[in-house]
Amino acid sequence: MYEFDYHKAKNVKDAVAIAKKQDEAKYLAGGMSLVPPMKLRLAKPGNLIDLNEVGELAGIKVDGKTVAVGAMTRHESVAESKDVKKAIPALAKLAGGIGDPQVRHRGTIGGSLANSDPAACYPTAVLGLGATIETDQRKIAADDFFTGLFETALKEGELITKVVFPVPDKACYIKFPNPASRFSIVGVFVSKKGNEVRCVVTGAGPCVFRVKGIEDALKKDFSPKAIENYKHPASGLNSDIHGSAEYRAHLITVLAKRAVAGAE
Amino acid sequence: MREFGVGQSVPRYEDARLLRGLGRYTDDIQLAGLVHAVVLRSPHAHARLRAVDTAAAKAAPGVLAVLTGADADAAGMGTVQPMVPRQRRDGSPMVLPRYRVLALGKVARIGDPVALIVAETLTQAKDAAELVAVDYEPLPVTLGTATLTRPGSAAVWPEAPDNVSFVFALGDRAKTDAAFAAAPHIVKVENTISRVAGCALEPRGAIGSYDPVEDRYTVWATVQQPHQSQAQLAGEFLRVPPAKVRVIAPDVGGGFGVKGTGYVELGLVAWASRVVGRPVKWMSERSEAFLCDDQARDNVTSAELALDRDGKFLGFRVRTIANLGAYVGSAGPLPPTVNLGGLVGVYTIPACDVEVTAAFSNTVPTAAYRGAGRPEASFAIESAIDRAARELGIDRAELRRRNLIPPTAMPYKTALTFNFDSGDFPTGLAKALAAADWPGFAARRRAAAATGKLRGIGIAYAIEQAGAGLEETAEVRFDRSGFATLFSGSSPHGQGHETMYKQFAATFLGLDPANVRLVTGDTDQVFHGIGTFGSRSAAVGGAAMRLAAERIVVKARKLAAHMLEVAETDLAFEAGSFRVAGTDRTIALTEVAKASYRTFTLPRGFEPGLTERATFVPSAPTFPNGCHVCEAEIDPETGATAIVRYTVVDDVGRVVNPLMVKGQLHGGIAQGLGQVLLEEVRYDADGQLLTASFMDYAMPRAEDIPDIAIETNDVPSTTNPLGIKGAGEAGTVGALPAVMSAVVDALASAGVRHFDMPATPERVWRAIRTATAGPRA
User: What is the pLDDT of residue B776?
Assistant: First the structure.
């Protein structure tokens, strides 16, 4: 690890102010994605702004129509929340399947979204439910948020404060985990709310993306059968030692079918 | 003391310490003035080293030394030597490229050590390492075990233009050829054994401390064989008499063979300590471990089995190319050559012919890892039997049954070095088939098919050699309070030596475990030792402890007779006390021990104190064996494969601690299963390591391991006084072939004819897709 300066933020205003003042500043949420590359000297932030004691960033609020999750809410809190389980069971299950127990007790939704790992789980729920990402400056629609490999619409120093998920009629996330890292080789999130259907894939592209072919078919008939002949093009998909682009393309249809079958 | 003795499931005494973070590992050692070392490693798999410029690094803050290969040569540092010599096909000595502590002239694999940077702090050492300017000229990279020796493969070393270091042959070629010529059936399998990394929980590390007053080195290190490391440090690296080197293995967090001898870092920290005049610590991080720890397995084997019309085995022929990596490591020649006896398994195979070609590649060197050639050998014969059963239309278990060596044939001389002293294989097979409900598999397969899954059942009857040849030592030392300290030349790295030796002390000497302490791993305290590997510590170390205990009783009896005023022959030793025969007059051994220090009350000629040591040399190896049956379920849509049922009936000889044997089997099976389903070291075409962290190198997790049903079929060994055979590697030796057998069986039900490990999802999915798409044309 290279040396860096550590700042403990008291509240959102304080955190943003420090970020404005310091060069090469990074917010430290759970640290599950930021700290390992720092330890390997692959990341070199000059300043870390620790959000872990910013109480206003953590917590879950559920009303009839939405589930609002504070940016510093740990995966385990979402996975174990009775309110979330009741309102959007798919979201609770997704959170309960991230990493391992240690990661789930440290990692946060804000950290996951800001990092936008190409194989992360949370972005599928955000895009798959059409959530809104709230920051210290504005509200960003999920469809506008994920812009590329480890890239988002967030501006320099902009801080996610919470994520507001509309409650769907039903939804489901199925992940085919990388046997080593337990990130997704491919993960598929499917949701239905009235006439709107979303099908979102992680692990297969530079960031999460919607699959129009599957969404269109499911709009007509929300059943596994409706998409069993869907063939996703392999070109442009990720390819590595754990899965070729062709295999990932195949998994998109398999997992989408299972997600539709499991939607609740 | 019976409840603490041999045969009891005594919970591990060391766990209270180790599980609460109170272990004392190499990285926990604090020394005054300790400084830190970082090894700069090659980012190229093969390159000429044109220049190593250390000037900027030497000038960096806190830096005490930057050492290179040229410095090592100038200081007279030696090179790694293999433990055994081998020859090339023409009888000339094996090709042995110079395996230096720091590379000079060229680097031959990713991670080759190029420089050692020593600084006041670890961060300073890492910062300075970034300032070392190395001018590399990349050279062609040679990879791919199957093709290393083919014409056209670039030579890793000019002295071996064909990349062959040595060729090792065993068996009777003429007799085998004759058996094949007359055989009505010959089946052939071509297998790849993948390369794996033996990932111990604790990475490797070492601290060197040179004492100019005594002109002597002390090295604390994560090693399995401290006395052998001492010999290597003295003889190969530092070139000083062994008396000038003390090695201490403190708590060691897992070894599996990977923490054997041959590591240059031990020599580097010792040398660096002399250079900077301070103790020097090097501690590997996980990502460095994938580069600096020996890797394992990695061979390509062609095996042919000849059978008669009734399925009786007539002969077995094996040709293997073993990938040594870039150098011949200390233990490098062992796995491909020393455990080949397992190739004939538990079967009556009259003729066998084996030839192993060991070849160089631009990869991390390979060495011993749990089984060290045993799982590979078992896989060769067991996969050939499976193939024969399929081709001849005989049930796989039945074909094995027809060829098992009967217990009445013991002792049995096999066609390939192994001379079995004991073992009841037909009983083991019958028990395993019953416990695993082999006949009920068809119904389970149908049930799985109803949920869209392919289910397969696998079987392997593995046998291995353990505790061969080398001696082990023990010492029992009573102090004047009657407290006993045991010393063992075999030191633990997770096995549970403390518990086992306390059980020995309870059984052999009737000692309360609370009054016994075990000392291991320190070459100054333990007079001699070989170490822990090859499933040998219980059988060989235990026999040594028994000898030492017998000597204690012989000496103590003299004093007890004097104290009780009877003849020695009137005394019986039982449960820790001497009893006058036919009376209730007794005296405890611990009281005799105390009395042995009361010099002026001793009988004439009795040397004060009660301390004995012993060295046991086994006359012959032991042969742990076991029948493994397991079932795999494959999701054909994704290729995901799970092991859903596992049964093993094991013969590890007499059992010291059933709980610990179960633990050994669980861990061993997990490592065999891990290799088949998950683990694989992968390099890209440039020799870059693709699996350089746990993000890409998949270790088995608890959820990957099914419940394991363990039954025993123990037949005491006759080759050591305790009847112990050994349990350390048995799980892996059986699991590798058994799990593959199950996976291959599941895939065969989808028409797949051949499948190589690992059974990772995409590979399984592709195999099924290719097989089902095949006949369409």
Answer: 46
Averaged pLDDT, B309-323? 98
Kindly list the domain boundaries of chain B, sorted by start residue. 2-20+470-616, 31-139+207-282, 295-467+620-776
Nearest Cα of chain B lies from the Cα of A257 at a distance, in angstroms, of 11
For helices A245-262 and B761-773, angle between their N-to-C axes, nearest 10 degrees: 100
Contact B418, B465 (CB under 8 A): yes
* Distance from C-alpha of B775 to C-alpha of B777, rounded to nearest angstrom: 6
Residue B36: which of B69, B64, B57, B61 has the closest Cα? B64
Closest CA to B460 of B381, B405, B404: B381
DSSP string over B61-95: TTEEEEEEHHHHHHTT--B---SS--B-TTSPBPP
Interatomic CA distance for residues A212 and B509, integer angstroms: 77
Contact call for B762 and A244, based on CB within 8 A: yes
Q: Which of B302, B400, B452, B330 is nearest to B625 (CA)?
A: B400
Instruction: Among A147, A166, A185, identify where a domain stops.
Output: A166
Amino acid residing at B175: K
A38 to chain B, closest Cα gap in Å: 13
Kindly state the greatest CA–CA separation across chain A.
Answer: 56
Contact B99, B108 (CB under 8 A): no
Predicted confidence at residue B615, as pLDDT, reads 98
Nearest CA of chain B to the CA of A247: how many Å?
7
Tally the domains of chain A. Answer: 2
- Beta strands B577-580 and B586-588: pairing type? antiparallel
Is A244 in Cβ contact with B696 (below 8 Å)?
Answer: no
* Best A33, A103, A117, A241 residue to mutate vs chain B (most B CBs within 10 Å): A241
User: Are B490 and B472 in contact, with CB atoms under 8 Å apart?
Assistant: yes
Tell me what ipTM this predicted complex has. 0.96
Domain B31-139+207-282 superfamily per CATH: Aldehyde oxidase/xanthine dehydrogenase, a/b hammerhead (3.90.1170.50)
User: Which DSSP helix (H) or strand (E) runs through B166?
Assistant: strand B164-171
Residue of B682, B698, B766 with shortest CB distance to A179: B698
- Residue B469 has a pLDDT of 85
* Chain B touched by A244 (CB under 8 Å): yes
Shared domain check, A116 and A13: yes
A101 and A77 both lie in a single domain: yes
What is the per-residue pLDDT for B3?
A: 85
pLDDT tens for B182-195 read 999 999 999 999 99
Chain A / chain B CB contacts < 8 angstroms: 44
- Sign of the Cα torsion B466, B499, B261, B378 reads positive
Asked whether B4 and B502 are in contact (CB, 8 A), the reply is yes
Closest residue in chain B to residue A249, using alpha carbons only: B638
Query: pLDDT tens, B204-214?
Result: 999 999 999 99
Contact A242 B696 (CB under 8 A): yes
Q: Is the predicted pLDDT of residue B381 greater than 50, yes or no? A: yes
- In percent, how much of chain B has pLDDT > 90? 98
Q: Is B640 on the interface with A (CB under 8 A)?
A: yes
Of A183, A244, A251, the CB nearest to B638: A251
State the residue for tokens 């000037």: B55
What pLDDT, on a 0 to 100 scale, did the predictor assign at position B777? 38
As beta bridge partners, residue B715 has none
Q: Is B478 helix (H, G, I), strand (E, B) or coil?
A: strand
The CATH code of domain B2-20+470-616 reads 3.30.365.10
pLDDT at B567: 97
- A3-54 tens-digit pLDDT: 999 999 999 999 999 999 999 999 999 999 999 999 999 999 999 999 999 9
Whether pLDDT at B506 is above 90: yes
Residue B352 to residue B319: CA distance in whole angstroms: 11
Residues 86-145 of A with CB under 8 A from B: none
